[in-house]
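Technical annex, item 7. During the second reporting period the consortium partners agreed on a shared format for inverse folding records so that results from different sites could be compared directly. Each record opens with the tokenized structure and is followed by the designed sequence. A conforming record, contributed by the partner at site C, is shown below for reference.
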């Protein structure tokens, strides 16, 4: 299973365990939605990774191998998975056990609180030559504000430690061995809030972003898909896979 579900008293821990980079592909996106549904009775959720990586983003090897047809299948599943985290009514805390890159950074942004140990965080899609799905961009907008989006996205930089904290990309830093424990403590504390008032408040905060996604996704998603399917984008993915991933 690409996502495992563990129980720590009333806190559900979802662990991404999907290859060396804990990447997002059709399988892990479907599994994340399924596991969140399973965790619906928990008072809070912690999302973490395995090994030294939280999530390295989209599995570009799958994009390379599957081509345009795979892109068309994958992109809606990616948005659905991100929105499942973003719209989850109970507290969700990201235990960043390692790098949170590109889609992994968006996944962290979809959570309510981010605890960083080792590794870096940043959105790097434009370095590969593909745009963000609308859902991903709105999640980043909610977490970090509109004014921050250009600096976060255009250059494709990543930050770790105090630099990530200073930029507001994470909420706290802890030693590597304490990341999961601390995230569970935070999740349990947030989970002590009355369930319905918490869910309503969370929905109020995120309503404008959900509304923009609902209004514009039907027109923006086809354009994002066209750009991801383009020969130029697929060639850039191939080059990245060959040069960086081997």
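Designed sequence (site C submission):
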């Amino acid at each position: 299973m690409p996502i495992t579900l563990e129980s720590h008293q009333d806190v559900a821990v979802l662990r991404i365990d999907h290859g060396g980079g804990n990447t997002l592909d059709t399988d892990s996106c479907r599994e994340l939605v399924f596991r969140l549904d399973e965790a619906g009775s928990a008072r809070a959720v912690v999302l973490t990774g395995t090994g030294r990586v939280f999530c390295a983003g989209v599995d570009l090897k799958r994009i390379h191998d599957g081509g345009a047809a795979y892109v068309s299948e994958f992109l809606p599943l990616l948005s659905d998975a991100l929105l499942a985290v973003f719209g989850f009514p109970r507290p969700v805390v990201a235990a960043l056990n390692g790098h949170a890159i590109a889609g992994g950074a968006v996944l962290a942004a979809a959570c309510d609180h981010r605890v960083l140990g080792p590794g870096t965080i940043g959105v790097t899609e434009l370095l590969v030559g593909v745009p963000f799905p609308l859902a991903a961009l709105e999640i980043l907008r909610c977490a970090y504000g509109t004014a921050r989006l250009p600096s976060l996205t255009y250059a494709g930089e990543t930050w770790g430690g105090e630099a990530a904290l200073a930029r507001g990309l994470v909420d706290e830093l802890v030693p590597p061995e304490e990341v999961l424990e601390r995230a569970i403590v935070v999740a349990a504390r947030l989970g002590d809030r009355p369930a319905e008032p918490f869910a309503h408040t969370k929905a109020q905060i995120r309503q404008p972003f959900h509304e923009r996604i609902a209004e514009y996704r039907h027109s923006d998603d086809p354009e994002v898909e066209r750009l991801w399917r383009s020969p130029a984008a697929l060639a850039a993915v191939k080059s990245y896979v060959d040069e960086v991933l081997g």
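The domain at 3-191 is CATH 3.90.226.10 (2-enoyl-CoA Hydratase; Chain A, domain 1). Residues 46 and 184 are 6 Å apart (CA to CA). All partners now use this format for quarterly exchanges.
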